[in-house]
């Protein structure tokens, strides 16, 4: 049973170690509604990714924007353009285009609260090593679109991106975040984010804890049984 506990320590330790690649954050504001409501806890992978695909939802530092003051914190936004993309708003159907391809984004909410849809036209070339972001609540979101024409054209350097949202809920109970295929369906290259490693890590950690408990209980039972046998042996009178 000691061996079982040792295996549990190894399994649970590996699960815990890999789970440390993920962090939790409570989403402030309503800029990502209706996809993410204010106060929702999301799970994001903080480790650097080789690239961030279009459509990914990221946690970014608001200091990336030119009018940010000290200590403004972070925000969750959707990537609608990556380095080298030409992002334009909008078509006659009120769709953004990326490299000339209209993108249908069914997750957005664009009513301005007065029953009207309002769009601020823009055209921007996203610089290398940066992303262009927007909130899903398109008429109530502080994002890259506001800063087109200012230094940086609203682009967020990758160094200001903390991670990609992969789950909804706490690290111990998160479910996979629904990733969009809107940009792929528009004919743009790249694949949506696919990361459910937190579930595997979490399961390994739980299995490890279970094995440790089982091993400890088994060891205690073995000790108790051995002690009982010794007491019985002492109680038996020697043969004459």
From TrEMBL:
Compartment(s): Cell membrane; Membrane
Organism: Amycolatopsis decaplanina DSM 44594
GO cellular component: plasma membrane
CDD domains, A to Z: S26_SPase_I (cd06530)
TM segment ranges: 204-224
Family that this chain belongs to: Belongs to the peptidase S26 family.
GO molecular function: serine-type endopeptidase activity; signal peptidase activity
Domain of life: Bacteria
Record protein name field: Signal peptidase I
GO biological process: signal peptide processing
Reaction equation(s) it catalyzes: Cleavage of hydrophobic, N-terminal signal or leader sequences from secreted and periplasmic proteins
Keyword terms of this UniProt record: Hydrolase, Membrane, Protease, Transmembrane, Transmembrane helix
């Amino acid at each position: 049973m000691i061996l079982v506990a040792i295996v549990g320590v190894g399994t649970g330790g590996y699960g815990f170690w890999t789970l440390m690649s993920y962090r939790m954050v409570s989403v402030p504001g309503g800029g990502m509604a209706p996809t993410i409501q204010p106060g929702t806890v999301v799970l994001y992978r903080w480790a650097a990714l080789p690239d961030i695909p279009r459509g990914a939802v990221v946690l970014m530092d608001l200091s990336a924007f030119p009018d940010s003051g000290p200590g403004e914190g972070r925000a969750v936004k959707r990537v609608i353009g990556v380095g080298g993309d030409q992002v334009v708003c909008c078509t006659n159907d009120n769709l953004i285009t990326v490299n000339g391809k209209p993108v249908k984004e069914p997750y957005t909410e664009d009513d301005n609260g007065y029953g009207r849809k309002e769009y601020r036209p823009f055209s921007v070339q996203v610089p290398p090593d940066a992303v262009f972001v927007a909130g899903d609540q398109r008429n109530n979101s502080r994002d890259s679109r506001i800063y087109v024409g200012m230094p940086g054209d609203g682009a967020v350097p990758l160094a200001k991106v903390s991670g990609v949202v992969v789950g909804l809920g706490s690290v111990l109970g998160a479910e996979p975040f629904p990733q969009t295929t809107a940009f792929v369906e528009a004919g743009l290259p790249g694949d949506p984010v696919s990361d459910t490693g937190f579930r595997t890590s979490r399961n390994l950690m739980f299995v490890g804890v279970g094995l440790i408990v089982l091993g400890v209980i088994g060891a205690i039972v073995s000790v108790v049984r051995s002690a009982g046998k010794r007491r019985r042996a002492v109680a038996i009178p020697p043969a004459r």
